[in-house]
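Meet the record:
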Amino acid sequence: MPRPRSIAPAELYEYPAHLRDTVSAMPGGPGVYLLFGAAGAPLYIGKSVNLRARLLSHLRTPEEARLLRQTRSIEVRPTAGEVGALLLESRLIKELQPLYNKRLRKSRRLSSIALCEEGIDIVDTTAAAATRPLYGLFRSRRAATESLCELADEHGLCLALLGLERPSGRACFRHQIGKCRGACVGHESPGEHRQRLSEALANWKVEHWPHPAAIALYERHDELEAFHVINQWHYLGSFPSLAAAREAPSRPPASFDADSYRILVRPIMAPTVPIIELGS
């Protein structure tokens, strides 16, 4: 049986011949690119503000070079801007499940912290009401709990009042070692403790939807225009005209969409593209 041929460094970083003409003809604007392997199997999906430059740079590491050697064809889908590219990339990765995309292959069931009368509640972001204040986006309930315990120790909060430990009617262990200020034994009122909890969580706050109804984010590149309809952090589709965007269904699901939130929070809270109010 013949031994596998070793690949010389010069060959490793040489663009595969069967892809050169395709990449040279790629547009230079924003969009999403899809790499397909044998029998049309999706290998990788990426986005860029300059598709041609990004594809030509896919030789920066040995891993990227190996990916290109497996690639049999490349497809690009131009967008009107970076926001549209991010949204399209996220959707296509979930739909096509490419082999080498790990981060966005599934809709993530993240956990967040919500305040309740009993202290705190750790909720699944995919089931949480969109209008409910949430704090933090964690990979699991366990990660949320561990982070909350660290926050409690840092701010002298009581795990019993937070609902993370069963009340014993006496000073909790953390008070005995100086990490709880004593809300469990009346050294501060529940109201004072709750106020300090709110202040401690402030930096983790998931931004509240800042608009009364749906909006459209407008992008344009050359002759390509797009109106991305968003409501309660849910991406509801992209449309070629404002009239089409206004006619699109704009009622969001009741859940919180963590992936859309992470893509959209910056361009919406510190607008990097024009925002158009669509009304109720």
Observations:
- The chain has a mean pLDDT of 87.
- Residues 214-279 form one domain.
